[in-house]
Amino acid sequence: MVQVKKYHLPPTRLIPNSPYPLLHYKGLLSDPSKRRPEDIHDTLDGNGWETQWIFRYGATQASHYHSRIHEAMVVLSGTATIRFGVADTDPDLDKSTWGGACEEGGVEIAAAPGDVFVIPAGVAHKTYNASPSAVFSLLTPGEGRGIPGPDVRESLAGVRLSGFTMLGAYPKDCGSWDFAVGGDDVRNFEVSWNVPKSEKDPFLGNAPEGILGQWGKNLGNMEVV
């Protein structure tokens, strides 16, 4: 049975977040035989989602959100902490990660191999404390906004994982992802709030445990905290 955890994240002064909850499918792909990137791609493709990248993460990154597109992330290897729902308040990554220079609120989740996150447009996220330690790097061909070449599946099969890695996917035909760090859409948060939900969940398809059931109603509190 799928273990679904959901988090309603209200908007902050800098981050729109979303009326839809952040979804965490804990250990959905914990069986290593189900974590081959090319097989994950097949599942995503069949549900109308496009695999666009595999990143190996470093010690930390800037908190950011995608204002006009939903995102699915799959943990392929390693462990890390992901902070959702709040912006950094200092450009110094040491201060914003370990020194408390971030907005109040949000949620921090320990990410492990096989975890899947479905992140609504507008929800901030920041990955840090990645282990094994490594240098941040894009492992797939291209620039992270799609995998070029005649055979995406073959490209994914050739990726050699190391450190903490995640695969990212987005609904097909919904444009490219942006990288908003907070404060970008103040007074225009509705742009993110009104992004339509996808026709199918990236992994659960039409199952009610996925976005078709979890995002069926506007249950979030959209008052700025």
From TrEMBL:
This is RmlC-like cupin domain-containing protein. It comes from Hypoxylon rubiginosum.
